Amino acid sequence: MRLPWLGIAPGLSLPLLIAAFFGCYINLPLFILTPHRQSKQRVSVEIFPLWLLKCLCLPSYKTQCEFYGYIGLNVSGGLIPIILALYQFYRVQQEVILIVTAVVALFSYFLVTVIPGIAIVTRMSRFWLITIVAVLSAMALVVDGVNRYDVSVAFAGGVLGTTIGADLLHQTRCSPRNCCNSP
Asked: Apex CA 31: angle with CA 16 and CA 165, to 5°?
């Protein structure tokens, strides 16, 4: 198996596929949401990642509040695609990737649905619309030549645009004060 359009060597394709397959079971908690003691309607965000504290084995770290929830990053759905997209950013036409990223971020910002306290989701039909926007904008903007990089640009712009437009720009709507819907 080869991934020549993304510039990945043949020897790395199979380990990358295996990592993506098993990475779907791994979520890295980035921020922990815990309720305050005074009220169940208020939550505090621990900015320092709890998974890093667990890896450092700090026994002195004790939470005074019970665990409420977390904002996490899935390995195969977020970490591996973002690393591959950043690799494409340094490999092909950066300005075109930035334009495709901006277009996809704009579309994905308006096409996702935020379910407070649960997730940021999109319907399958809207997902395909975001993908088609990434592909068509990459095909329109990539300069013709011997090596066409429209697949790499569409991949990087689609991943980074969706991450920015759907996830990062909606973090204010998923703030701790909006995520307290349960008693």
From this structure: 65
